Amino acid sequence: MKKQLTYILTAASLTIGASACTDKWVDTNPYGAPTTAHFWQSNQDVQKATTAMYVTMRNESTWGRDLYWIQDASDDLVVGRVKADGENIKNFIPSGREGYLTGGWNDLYFMLNKANQVLAGLSTAQNVTDDVRKQAMGEAYFVRAFAHFWIAYIWGHKDQGVPFDGPENAEYGKRIAPQLKSVTDNYAQIISDLQKAADMLPLFETYSAENRGRAHKAAAWAYMVKAYAYWAQYDNSKWQPIPALCDKIRDEGHRALVTVKKQDGSLDARGSYQAVFTIANNWSSEYIWSVTSGVLGGSEFPGVILENKGWGVYNGWGYFQPTEELYEEYESSDPRREVTILKFGDKFTYFGKDRAYYSSNSLSGFQINKYMEPYKYGADEKAGTNSFINPNGDYPTTALNLPLMRYAEVLLFKAEALIKLGRNGEAAAPLNELRARVGLTPVPNPTINDLKHERRVELACEWTDRLQDLKRWGDYDKIRSPLHGRSHTDKLDPNSSYTIKEIWPQRNFDPNRHMAWPISPDEISRSNGAYKQTPGW
User: Fold this and answer.
1) Which of 159, 290, 468, 517 has the fewest CB atoms within 10 Å, i.e. the most exposed one?
2) Within a 13 Å sphere around the CA of 309, how many CA atoms are in the beta-carbon half?
3) What is the pTM of this model?
């Protein structure tokens, strides 16, 4: 996928009732967009259609910001700035009508619908070579499964799944997409699609530079791992296939951790971890799946978490700040802490100038540091001198891709699966591979608590969803507990003293109600009774 997706195939309805067979599929704007009657006639048509599947990945409503609001509801983060809808989500009191929820729902179904259109179109496509057809089908099955996975785990419940339909079903296009009985039915469909995708897709390293960002084998295998792990909270047998899949990702998919050596040949512990979150390593061996980003489009998340107003240099938005609880989770010698979190007095380079961190914006006294590399470039703290950021601060994308899954998470799922299967000794290898990368001592016979700790500190502030981990582990008290931050005597002085205080009160998390998020009542109303609200809501 090129960094700028300039072709949008057609406008599909954002409601899940739309299908490739309705007139809503056709773009009514006078832009010369093709209709179904004259499309699917060449390799070029198919390639345009597959490219269109990825467009919503760059939206604010998906992996730019809004899908992160539900992850902000964990114990690792607080909202940051006053934002009523975000606070309602954080406090588990949303109505379901919040734009931060409905925007993601709509765009994820838009993405799923685009994949369905490709699968349907390929069934009748003319003058298409076998290799293009196979590649397109693999990509479509992956994109459909990827979007479906996010919908399922956010809104799906063990007693009620989320709507799904596809052109392989005889009634597709003649009915509103049926709501499945359980989220486990959704996971079964997702895994089936991912297996088909893996069978058809090429390895990542076979892609030319302009096609990096398209679906590939290792990504399909990795999301199979994650879907199995999420399914396993309802069925322990689903841990069984995970270790072998993880080995396949390593051995056949050629994925591996990024490591950096010092000049004397010894391990650079901090440098190894920090290197993962650099523009130079957008496509490293650790890459599994990311939002492909550039200065004119991609994920705006690095700007979303930057200090509000960016110290007068660039338009940071100031959301999603780490908590004291997260900071204290790290071992004192773990270099991942400083790579992940900026605290008062920490040194960093900003638009070519060395700075010490302070914040007049942060509620907790911390800022996410992982995605700050693009802001180090330039000169004299002038935004116009930095060619790695979008000059438009209202869409603050950067040249740094946003990781959605990396090989480190695959290792953690392998360790977790082995522990769940009673093979704790074997779990030491994948878990300690991560610890060795950052210079920490090995854990010889890891327990589930060791795994929980390692998963938290390795993946902190990424798009891996700490809240979902706490839900599937049954760690509800961690969700409910009050959250703390650092109150500095002078918010403009990097060296000012601080006291630790409560910054977010205890919340009421009820597992009978809050294991999945509410569907918009308006969506339910539009379905004319076909859809039911999430159990408990």
Assistant:
1) 159
2) 8
3) 0.93
